[in-house]
Write a structure and sequence with these properties.
By secondary structure, the protein is mainly α. It has a domain of 69 residues: Ribosomal protein S18 (30s Ribosomal Protein S18, Irregular), CATH 4.10.640.10. It contains 6 helices and no strands.
Length: 125
């Protein structure tokens, strides 16, 4: 027979092939570059949280008729800014959003950025 294995011919089992051994990787060298020689302290967190503007001024309610105050909390696109940008607490952010929506309904504040640009220049149709 042509396809006889070595075990059939000699009577001894074939030695099993061992998996190839991997060479150990060399240790990673420190990266070169400016300022890499010294270890920098790891900074975590954002530092001190800003205090809510309305809590600091002891405002009980947010007045929807005070358009100049409410305009500070609108983006240049006419959107209500997030708590991260306004640094308001959750209670005052909800009241602020409600006051801005009321002022928009009464046309004290704009809904769109087109009206912001138009009012500043002298809105004409």
């Amino acid at each position: 027979m042509v396809n006889e294995t070595e075990e059939q011919i000699t009577g001894e089992p074939e030695p099993e092939a061992a998996p190839p051994e991997r060479a150990a990787a060399p240790p990673a060298a420190p990266r070169a570059g400016p300022g890499r020689d010294q270890e920098r302290p790891i900074r975590r967190g954002r530092g001190r949280r800003r205090v809510c503007i309305m809590c600091a001024e002891n405002m009980k309610t947010v007045d929807y008729k005070d358009a100049s105050f409410l305009r500070r909390f609108l983006s240049d696109r006419g959107r209500i800014d997030t708590r991260r940008k306004t640094s308001c607490c959750a209670k005052h952010q909800r009241a602020l959003a409600q006051a801005i929506k009321r002022a928009r309904h009464l046309a004290l504040l704009p809904y769109t950025p087109d009206h912001i640009r138009g009012v500043g220049v002298g809105f004409a149709r």
